[in-house]
Amino acid sequence: MTDFYVKVGDNAKFTKTVSESDVYQFAGLTGDFSPNHVNKVYMEKSSYGRLMAHGALLVGFMSTVSTMVIAHCRDADETPVAVGYDKIRFIKPVFLGDTVSTVYKISAVDIEKRRSVAQIEVTNQDADLVAVGSHILQWVPNK
């Protein structure tokens, strides 16, 4: 196989306003009821002054854009599988009501190892960088 399913520069973008229900449902699904996410009175006393989204919720958005960038590969001879996220950093908090845009961009392809790597950036409505990471997809043969 000389061709690959993605190429450097391929990208996808997902934008969503983070709602109170997103954060509370995520807390319920994961069991992460940290007061940073679900206790308004507690957070009003902090220097942030308000509730913030879970960092792991942003990682979920990262997964969303990875799925978007490979959507055209569903009939391929190989199946792309996530094998890891590296260097994830939460640079600034995401507050309830913030609108975040998550951009996933293929930065490297290793045809021999059947892997692709992407850089991910999450920005808020003010164009502030709030999170970054890289993502590795392994392309495994179908039966």
Description:
A hairpin with a 4-residue loop joins strand 3 and strand 4 (about 115-125). This protein has a single domain (about 10-140), classed as Thiol Ester Dehydrase, Chain A (Roll), CATH 3.10.129. The protein has about 140 residues and is α+β, with helices and mostly antiparallel strands. Helices cover about 25% and strands about 40% of the residues. It contains four helices and five strands. It has a five-stranded antiparallel β-sheet, with helices on one face. It has helices at about 20-30, 35-40, 40-45, 55-70, and strands at about 10-15, 80-90, 100-110, 115-125, 130-140.
Gyration radius, rounded: 17 Å
What count of helical segments does DSSP give?
A: 4
Secondary-structure arrangement, i.e. CATH architecture? Roll
Number of domains: 1
User: What about the largest sheet?
Assistant: 5 strands, antiparallel
Low-confidence stretches: none
Strand order of the largest sheet: 1-3-4-5-2
The CATH topology corresponds to Thiol Ester Dehydrase, Chain A
Give a brief outline of the structure:
This protein is 24% helix and 38% strand. The chain contains 4 helices and 5 strands; from the N terminus they run βααααββββ.
Present the secondary structure layout.
Blueprint: E1 11-17, H1 20-30, H2 35-38, H3 40-44, H4 55-69, E2 78-90, E3 99-110, E4 115-123, E5 129-141
Antiparallel strand pairs: 1-3, 2-5, 3-4, 4-5
Characteristics:
38% strand; five-stranded antiparallel β-sheet; Thiol Ester Dehydrase, Chain A; 4 helices; 143 residues; 24% helix; alpha+beta
